[in-house]
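Pilot study result, target chain (983 residues):
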Amino acid sequence: MSTVILCHAESVNLDTIRASDANIIRYSVGVKMTELKDMLKQYTAGRIRNLGLHIQTRDTKLRILEDMEVTKESLENAGSFVSQFFRWLISEVLIEGAFIDFLLTTPIENASQICLAVQSVSKKKISVRLVSRFLSSELAPHNRRIVEIYINNEIMITNPNPRATSAQNRYERIRTVGKGAFGSAVLYRRREDSSLVIIKEINMYDLDSSQRRLALNEVSLLSRIEHPNIIAYYDSFEEEGVLMIEMEYADGGTLAQMLSRTQNLLDEEQIGDMMIQMCSAVAYLHENSVLHRDLKTANVFLTRDSFVKIGDFGISKIMGTETLAQGAKTVVGTPYYISPEMCSGVSYNEKSDMWALGCILYEMCCLKKAFEGDNLPALVNSIMTCAYTPVKGPYSAEMKMVIRELLQLDPQKRPSAPQALKMLRPSENRHRHTSGSMRSSVSFTTLYDLHVPTITLSSIPDLPSRISIKQVALSKTHTMVLTNDNELFGFGDNSCGQLGFGKFSKMENGRLVESLKGRDIQSVGVGNYFSVICCDRGTLLTFGTAKNLGLGKDAKDSAKPMLLEQLLRENIKDIYCGHDHVVAVLESGECLGWGSNQYGQLGLPTLEHFFAPTKIPMPSNKKIVYGKAGKDATMLLSDDGSLIAMGSNKHNKLNLTQRVGFFTKEKKTPNDYVNKPTILQGFPERVVDFSVGSYHSGVILESGQVMIFGRNDNTELGLGNSQKMAVRCVKPVKSLLHHACTHVLCGDGFTLVSTTEQELYFWGRKDLTDEDVCIDDLEETVTEKKMKRGTTTEIFDKNVVTLPSLILRLQDERGDKGIRLSGLAVSGRKVHVAVDMLEGKRLPSALAERCRSGSAPAINDETTHTWLREEFEKAEIIPIDASKRRVRFDDSCEKLKIMDATAKQNSLLREIEDLKSKIKEQDTTFEGHRNQMSDLESKLQELQAKQSFLRKSEPPPAYDRRNVTYNKLFPERENTSTTCVIL
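Predicted structure:
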């Protein structure tokens, strides 16, 4: 293994100061690439361990050759000469675990990004480091160790007293950019190379012994840390009693400054990208036994391209053996971000940093701090009770789940930094930020109708093929689809003009609502025969049946959107529609309602129809942030996590029925209707999602658990039977305890739940017959009710799914695409499922080449004959049971090698193999090729017939969860979708 310095004629000549065991390759920037590769090969044969690249030109650019500048963009472009050179260099010249060290005379911009981009061009494990001013005698210790690999240290040191020159002569002061507890951060320009640096000036005379110890602790710590997402340490020195710490300058300011300037919510992709970088830096710190202890938005620095750098390690702590075992105990940090264990004075560990990251993530999503208080005791109480407003922004359930996990009161339940990285960076997008093989993705959505009786999906016809759906609003009469481009599509019954097309004719297929084109639509709500649109600045438009438009008693049915003028002075945040009522939530947290109040679903005192918006009084002046409306009931979520319900409580579907004491006579008239907003009790954790069905309801807790309550005639409670649940004995659905659930839907006689694993579970009745329909208004005698209860618990019905069963699992085996379950909507027995597809444009890269054999051409390769390429493209992919036949491709010729199969099948497969070999050799005429392809097709059909039985009643091979109940009651079928697998 050798050490090589690669430098060209425009860089500094290092011949006289190189280390004795280092070889120098010096060349002209005008040589050809082949000549440069030949120079490298004479030292290598794949044996270089340390490669120093001294390729900085006089204009401070990094150039391999005259027209090959090394930049982040050129490295990420897989087709560029720069990317191809480094791919060859890493794969052919360097050994596994080798080092590439950029030796710079002048600091450059985007240095960290360049290092990451070099690492991403190949999967081979290497390390890339960058040393600025490598010839300086003032190098930091960790940089000096790198330089000593290539340079003779004794020769390099020419100035025996490097501190002799005054700092004022070497640096030009520009401005003060920040002030801290112990000093100030000043922006300087280094006169030697005109580079900008931050020098933290700390007057040691003004500090006591403990404060001086903290200042020196930062110097000691910074000199040991080196990570792309941590502010780089250059040097430290003391002049006239002032300790100066020279550090990297982040020209984009701090995250706190960025958030203070932001008016609109940040994009989730931007938040995720920045959070991944923060978690990566914190994971590095914890791996090296360092607690930051003061993570906050003011200590997260940004470059102009939003690259994240964590800084300010003044109160960081190096975790020794005692700290790792027992935890730290000193209370430090900014009050808004300190953890509950630090507030209570108990020992803490790295999980306190994770709490601070949760506070930062919340602040990025909501543009406000997670915990606030008028004074310090109020703030501490808010932190100790974990009282934060749930995230309401347009963010995915996965992002909200990460916030909830990081802000767990119990530090043991919080994820570690590596675990948080996995939660933020799913497997299908794991290389999105580090690999140059993918460009930005384009998302589009496919909307499916879920046919409950057969559990099958069918796409909704005539919607545009490449729309990105923001919201699906579904009622028993019609459907409205809102896209991210502010286009609204509608289809279904239009007898009252509820589709907004200006006419009253039925529309079977999706059609654009032209009258709303150009409107900035925030959300849409639909009920039976009416629709409500919430536009920008909180204005409302309504159309459909007159009684639910909120325009007064004299209103008429409208097929065109009508402005609700009464609410022009109100700023509407969101709307929620039931079958015959509407609840509007204001920015202030107040609620207005109109429509039917027959069952108390509006929470108003009189059970009548309200034709105009009316204020709904909330208990204890709760501020509402979110809600759901059902057939005859409404649930609302307040900013402190309280769940408020009103409306029909038949079958105790709102969980409001009080338990009757042992000696108390049972009331003849149960509390079936609640016309006053009432706070629900009995949930062990904060509620994050909920659904109000016709006969039962469900909630999802902060931990991801599901609780269902209400009628259980069709086993919709997920208990495994149809027994009636005791009052106030709601428990989590046991079968889903090991899954993080994100959404719950309560339909008529069934329940649907989605998880963070892109899975959909179903239980309840698939097909409701006339005998199964429950008519609530029927009068039954006490004897009849007892007989009914006694016979419903043991009946076996093939249409009833008693336990949660997996019916849909989205999986992605293609590296250039990703799919996710983006939306669910239910109304009665109707269910719509929205599936997002992220389609990336794959570029030719080493990653793509490794997916195929090195010698075999790709199907779309120009060297493959057109007729053969077309045959392969049209060929059917035949699934083979991996447990009974193991098939693998040989690296040289892609032959099928068959193991553990019957002799007859082996013979058939050998014949297919021979035919493929003949076709590949292409040594016959065109007519011969056609005959060979015909024989191959017949053999494949014969093999497919022999293996067809293997595809019956088998779950997808990629799915092997043993704790999931696979429902044998579902019909066996072979049809699958390109975007999902139906089980």
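One observation from the pilot: The domain at 255-386+399-425 is CATH 1.10.510.10 (Transferase(Phosphotransferase); domain 1). A full batch analysis is planned for the follow-on phase.
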